[in-house]
Amino acid sequence: MAAVTRAHGPLRVVTLITRLEGGAGVLTLRGATALDPDRFRVTIVTGSGNHLLDEAAAAGLEVIMEPALRTPIDPRSDLQALRALRALLTQRPFDVAHTHTAKAGVLGRMAARRAAVPRIVHTYHGFPFHEFQSPGRRGAYVAIERRLGRITDVALCVGAGVAVEAVRRRLVAPERIRTIGVAVAGGEGSELPARMPGARDRARRALGIPAGATVVGAVGRLTYQKAPEDFLAMIDHLGRADVVGVWVGGGELAEHVSRLADARPAGRIVLAGERDDVPEILPAFDVFVLPSRYEGLPTAVVEAMVAGVPVVATAVNAVGDVVVPGETGLLVPPRRPDLAADAVRYLLDQPAVAARMAVTARARLGLLVSARLAGRSYARDD
What we know:
With 382 residues, the chain is α/β, with parallel strands linked by helices. The protein has two domains: 11-184 and 369-379, Glycogen Phosphorylase B (Rossmann fold, 3-Layer(aba) Sandwich); 193-364, Glycogen Phosphorylase B (Rossmann fold, 3-Layer(aba) Sandwich). The chain is 41% helix and 19% strand. The protein contains 14 helices and 13 strands. The strands form two sheets. The protein has a seven-stranded parallel β-sheet, sandwiched between helices. Helix 9 (254-262) links the parallel strand 9 (243-248) and strand 10. The longest helix is centred in the first third of the chain and has 17 residues, at 75-91. It starts with 10 loop residues before the first strand and ends with a helix. The model has no long low-confidence stretch (mean pLDDT 90).
């Protein structure tokens, strides 16, 4: 498989993502900005986004909005998006099409193929199929990914667990699969912000939480995948009046989760909404919890580790790449908020053990905390 090169000028790269937000959006943007601008000229195409749209523009990246590119399956809007993407990729002489997330991964790769873009790269942040789907639906998604894999020159998998699943499911030829880490800021140095009174106090003030509270927090979109209802149930199972549960993030389940939270005692749950200062507020947490039904390798977990916050997470997909049970955190099965509560209680009751895990987690991250890793992996000549 020959690499795409240009005799004159930088390589023209179009990056397609359904929504420029969440962990996938962060990784996509950091990967794009890590590329050498003398070698690559990046255009981002997305259906929607949050503050990352402004960050992309501030970084000098061209951003094109395509409103028909939306997450829900809708034949009419999907066909409209496919036609629009194909027209764009035909009119603009891009050298590389790099797709992210499920919907943009399907439509973007199809459009790139039909527009004869020389090189097609796809990043698997996770998969559109999981164990909580019906066998028929799951099988259909796998079949679609296998067909798309035939036109994918390189598949970048966020985490070894995701790469292993891609190989096991035969989504892409093994020699075309590459494993990358997440790109997060602030990994260098030995200081743990969660252990610094100044950072901890500022973070709690920003969230409106008393300095002396015990805080168990989560970061993620309020979606089915992230299982926010299991987080609320976990707080209930803890049975500790001193614990405040904090969820940072918005999403389509925001109203539903707000109603569930309102049914709890006042001050028990704080829904902080979408924020652009997640690394700064993570030190407010005594324990970070990831309750997801399924995942790739979540940026939020790694950012919590960078901040020095001990982690409890569900044992799904590539999470085990960084959360090593008993060493860098604790893992529990998905959909078991009772067991998650037991794990959180253990870390709260054993602060020395929790601190040791946090230090070990930070030390083991290594290249995972480098934004340059995504750029190097993407730019690799294959």
